[in-house]
Structure formats: C-alpha cells, structure tokens
Amino acid sequence: MKSRCPSVIPAAGRDNFMLRSNFVIDWLWLIAFGLATSAACVVAAQQVGVTFDEPIYLEHGLNFWHTGSHRPLLKLGTMPLPVDVQTLPIAIAEWVRGERFNLNTDFARIIVWMRHGNLIFWWLLLYFGMRLGRDLGGSWAGRVAVAALACEPNLLAHAALATTDIAIAATLLAFIAAYRRGRDGDWRQRVGWPGFWCGIAMLSKASALAFCPLLMLAVELVRRQEANGLFNWRQQLSSCLRDGTGIAGLGFAIAFVGCGSDFLPNDWFVHWSHSLTEGTSRTCLVWLAEHLRIFSNAGEAMANQVHHNLRGHGQFLFGQADQRPYWYYFPVLFLVKLTLPVLAATAYFILFRPRQIANNAALVAFGVLLLFS
Questions:
Q1: Considering just the CA atoms, what is the radius of gyration of the chain in Å?
Q2: Are 30 and 134 in contact (CB under 8 A)?
Q3: Contact 58, 111 (CB under 8 A)
Q4: Cβ pair 118, 90 in contact under 8 A
C-alpha cells in the first residue's frame, strides 16, 4: 500500500514553512531582547538620579490628565505625546485610589512609574528596528538590528528615563520604514501610513519637522542609486512632492488634533498688538489678537521650539563651557557617545564598502542626519 504522505514537501509548502518559522523566530528574538532590556531599564529607573526635564514633564503631564490642557507644555515648545504616555500610569493610579499624588512627598515613587511608561516607545523602537532591518537585508539583518539597538548603552540609558529621545527615535524609525516600504504602493502605503507616523513623530518632538523630510530625501537618494541611471528625475520629483505634500498635510493634522487647544488668545500676540502706535492697523490687530482664540496649539509649540533653537545654546565638553561653539564639538561628541562596534562598523563601510552605503536606506539616512547635525 502506498503512503498517502508525499516523500518530498512541495516547494510552495517549504516556502510557507520557512516563512512561518522565520516569523516565530523573529518574534521570539524580539520578545527575548525586549524583556531582558526592559528588566534592565526597570532596575536602572529606581537607581538613576533625576534629570532636568523630568520634574517639568511630570508636573505638566499630570496637569493634562487633570485638566485636559497641554498649554504649559506647548508654551515650552514640548510636544505632548511622550509625556502623556509616561504619566498615564500615574493618572490611572490616582483614579484608582481616588486621590491625587503630592508631587513633593510622592515624587521619588511616581517618577519611577513615569519612567516605566517610556518602555512603550522602547518596544516600538525594537520592533521597527527589526522590521526595517528585515526589509533591507532579510531575517537575520532584522535580528541583528534588534540586538544592536538593545545592546546600545546610550539608547538603554534613555529608555530608563522619562524623556522624549526614545519616543522620537522610535517614531522616526517607524516613519522611514513605512515611507520606504510604501513608495511603489497605493495611496494608503505611499501617503497614509507615512503621514500617520509623521504626525506621531511630530507629536513626540518638534524636531520631526526637520528629520522627516531628511529621511524622505535619504530614501529617494537610494531609489535613484538602485535604478542605475534609468530613473526619471522629473517623474521622481513630481511623485515625491505630491506624496510629500499629502504626508505633511496628514502629519500636521494629526499633530494639531493631538495637541488640542484651549481656545484662548495668544498672550504674546495680544501684548504686541497693544504696544503698537495708535491707528487703524493697531485697532484691527488688537481685535484680531483678542478674538483669534485658537491657542495653545501645535503650531505655537513648534514656533517656540524653533525660536528656542535660534537663540543658540552654550556648549560643555571635557570640562570646558562656552557660549561660542567649538568647531570640534560634534566630531568629538560622536566619538565619545558612540560605542566601539558602531564606530568600527562605520569605518569599515566607509573604507571597504562605500557602494553598499549608497544602496542602503538606513546608512544613507545615518549619513544625512550626521551631516545635518
């Protein structure tokens, strides 16, 4: 009697089996690194001292859950999503206990809970790191990307704090992964998902205004390189501008809705209009300032952040502080901050694999952001 089971698995069956196996291994790999690093962050969060921003974020984040207003954060130029997420566990605890925490007496306890809220963005970073790595180089590239991110000391240090750096890193990684994958897809893939992540990135930090276009540029440069000179520049530019406009529109809509508004006049605009000399223009501007009740909003936060950056910052490096910039600040800072494997890999690709840099969206994005810095 012949066996009913075939002695050789059909090619399609083998492919499906391999896909399922890789899927399971990928998720087990991600969960293992995610749990191990989360445990490290939970321990570190209880031991690390308080940073400059955390008390401000804690106070204003709880203010949002108490009043529904982002106004104090937006006036500082801080986008609210990371702070809202990080303070949500504390707000839930207040609701359960029926009493608000005292920020003076309970600070040491609740700041640790706030830091744990940042792990949501940490897992997001690991997931999209794996996804982008897998898209660029296959399953093992995705797994190595997860391991590299999880073992990076600077990232781990920020993941144990209630700050915004991990949030913006994760959402920008999600943005470039969605934008790269969807370039030849339908509207949902080309504009919808990239626009969504652009908006989430802007809700995480105002610097996404600069970073998202730079990441789009990096992807387009790689697409141009991969085409081997057969790319139509006019068609590419037209497509990029069309989709970029849609992405920006959707992103700004998400950012403005997410930040909300108290529907109040802008204090600075009112004060400035009243300082003008008497005349028709002053009368019109005073009326406009007092009746334009759309503040605070995402635009005000972005404007405040840009104004803050234009004022410049003092620099501190190796025990030296000065308001004037050091010409060597960024090269030295990267050498100090980046770990030896990252520096070694960067040197290897520059010296021995320069063509692979031009054909890899992640490496080109790294170079573009480095030059921008």
A1: 24
A2: no
A3: yes
A4: no
Q: Which residues pair with 181 in a beta bridge?
A: none
Q: What tokens does 122 get?
A: 């940490």
Is residue 13 pLDDT above 70, yes or no? no
**CA 263, CA 354: separation in Å to the nearest integer?**
53
Which pair of structure tokens corresponds to residue 3? 């066996």
Q: Please give the C-alpha separations between residue 266 and each of 74, 275, 288, 317, in angstroms, as whole numbers.
A: 12, 14, 10, 38
d(CA 356, CA 348): 11
What gap in Å lies between CA 309 and CA 98, rounded to an integer?
A: 41
Longest dimension (CA), the chain: 106
Is 3 exposed, middle or buried, given 0-12, 13-18 or 19+ CB atoms closer than 10 A? exposed
**In this predicted model, what pLDDT tens digit does every residue of 329-354 receive, in sequence order?**
888 888 888 888 888 888 888 888 88
Q: Any idea what the Cα angle at residue 13 is, between residues 12 and 16, rounded to 5°?
A: 85
pLDDT, tens digit (0-9, with 9 covering 90-100), for 185-240: 899 999 999 999 999 999 999 999 999 999 999 998 888 777 665 556 677 778 88
Separation of alpha carbons 36 and 358, rounded Å: 34
Backbone angles phi, psi at 320, to 5 degrees: -105, 130
Per DSSP, what are the bridge partners of residue 320? 317
